[in-house]
Design a protein that fits this description.
Length: 509
């Protein structure tokens, strides 16, 4: 079945002659599971995503730290859903949904295109939250997309290269200091892997610097790392991080981030036994943000259009069946949903923002849509929590596994937890090829400590409008820049330290 523009927008009398249409916004874990669950439904499915790929986010930090190539954890949406596309009941569109018009049952895509829906699943996910300090984003990138991973990879590897070129030890130190803000699973995994890169992977590859002197500092505002884990596993995770060479600062409240470092407050015990909040500045040219997430802006668009309520993180508060109050044909799943599990109807519990929760919500939303199309009542969502995993580094991880249908929990750490983490993540990767690539890359890295995905585009090519600065020796008359004349390219992060004198070069674009 080929869809014309008029059939998508629902103009004319075409809609009355067609099957009910289900529009799915976002093809992350929730959206993809919903699309698969609707494969046998007597409906027309339209999937809209702002990228052309589905991303396995739990391993995104591996791309950011050069452990895996991007195609190993991402796959083209069209390829993943090719069988449904071939059957003629599914259309995939790459575009960004800018608003939702619930009055006319349409979603508005960038460019102004209106796409009609009979049932809508919003699985738009989440983005970074800087707690009102969005100006920090350019200095401390978060990790949500492949673009974020490439940015972090480039900054981390470029920091070592800049340190190799720097002859002044005091100026070299900030390049060899890496700060990770937030000690949730992403921050812990990132800090542990950066420690491995500095102390093992790069230890013999530089002549002027010793990468093993690099400092990796993990800052967490709460009293302990991995706050969603039990206290004993949190303590064990901190110990494993320190064994890898990372420094852990808990109770550290970040107050400012700029191009030259990070400022934080720490409650310190004084000589007389009293406590005092002391402000510190950590010189660092590489800061990575893992401290918070915020719901997609589509949550606010839904609230404006439907009157639904949002929680403090901007997530949409949904009904027990994942639909919106007063709009039973609109479902919200994944990180955008503030949902509860009704395993025990008398005591519903909050659903955590993890990939298993998004997958189960996607399947339940699809299941309820099929029931509505058949004239049946929908069911409340029930989340089955199988536990939590976090890896710290090679042979280091923590695991907290819930035994199904019991109240028992298995907790373990170290090498056994790391092996279990490997097995689970390989199992849930999409595609046999991806599983094989990841297994081979991890096996090679385990025995050699090498990471061969350490390439990134020319940073100058990424910023074609960057300023080109002509550096003129003070005692030599100025010369024009030619192909044979060395030039320096200044990026947004190549600025003078605060308080240092700034030369006035001749600048051209």
């Amino acid at each position: 079945m080929t869809l014309s523009t008029s059939s998508l927008t629902g103009t004319g009398s075409t809609r009355a002659q067609q099957k009910p249409r289900v529009v799915i916004i976002g093809c992350g874990f929730g959206g993809l599971e919903a699309a698969k669950a609707l494969s046998g439904a007597d409906a027309e499915i339209v999937v809209i995503d702002r990228t052309n790929h589905h991303l396995f986010q739990p391993l995104l930090y591996q791309v950011a730290t050069a452990g895996l190539p991007a195609p190993a954890i991402a796959g083209p949406i069209r390829h993943i859903l090719r069988k449904q596309i071939a059957r003629g009941n599914l259309t995939v569109l790459m575009g960004e949904v800018t608003s939702i018009d619930t009055a006319s049952n349409c979603v508005v895509v960038d460019g102004g295109e209106h796409i009609h829906y009979d049932h809508l699943i919003v699985a738009a996910g989440a983005t970074h939250s800087y707690f009102g300090r969005d100006d920090w984003a350019k200095y401390a990138p978060g990790l949500k997309t492949l673009g974020d991973a490439f940015t972090i990879r480039r900054r981390v590897l470029t920091a070592f290269e800049q340190a190799e070129r720097e002859t002044d030890p005091s100026k070299r130190e900030p390049w060899l200091t890496f700060a990770v803000v937030g000690a949730g699973p992403t921050g812990v995994e990132m800090a542990g892997t950066l420690a491995e890169i500095a102390h093992q992977t790069l230890s013999t590859e530089f002549r002027r610097i010793d990468s093993r002197v690099a400092r990796i500092i993990l800052l967490e505002g709460a009293p302990r790392v991995l706050g969603t884990f039990t206290e004993d596993l949190s303590k064990r995770a901190k110990e494993q991080l320190e064994m890898l060479g990372a420094e852990v600062l808990t109770g550290a409240k970040v107050t400012d981030i700029n191009a030259f470092g990070i400022r934080y407050d720490l409650n310190e015990t004084q000589a007389d036994g009293s406590s005092k909040v002391v402000s510190h500045f950590l010189p660092s040219r590489t800061v990575i943000w893992g401290a918070g997430v915020a719901a997609s802006p589509l949550g606010r668009a839904l609230a404006k259009s439907t009157g639904c309520q949002l929680d403090r993180a901007g997530r949409v508060i949904v009904q027990p069946d994942l639909s919106l109050p007063g709009h039973p044909n609109i479902y919200v799943v994944g990180d955008l949903a503030s949902a509860k599990s009704y395993l025990d109807p008398a005591n519903p519990t909050a659903v955590p923002g993890v990939s298993p929760g998004a997958k189960q919500m996607g399947r339940k939303a699809a299941f309820n849509i099929i029931r509505r199309m058949r004239g049946l009542e929908t069911h409340a969502f029930r989340y089955f929590d199988y536990g939590s995993l976090a890896t710290i580094g090679k042979r280091a991880a923590v695991a907290m596994i819930d035994v199904p249908y019991t109240r028992k929990q298995i907790k373990f750490s170290g090498f056994a937890a790391w092996l279990f983490w490997l097995f689970v993540h390989v199992y849930f990767l999409i595609g046999f090829r991806n599983r094989m690539v990841v297994m081979m890359d991890w096996a090679w890295a385990y025995f050699t400590s090498q990471r061969h995905a350490r390439v990134f585009p020319d940073p100058h090519a990424l910023e074609p409008n960057a300023m080109v600065v002509r550096v003129t020796p003070p005692s030599v008359p100025p010369v024009s820049v030619t192909a044979a004349t060395p030039i320096n390219t200044v990026s947004s992060s190549s600025t003078s330290a605060p308080g240092s004198p700034v030369a006035q070069p001749s600048v051209s674009r």
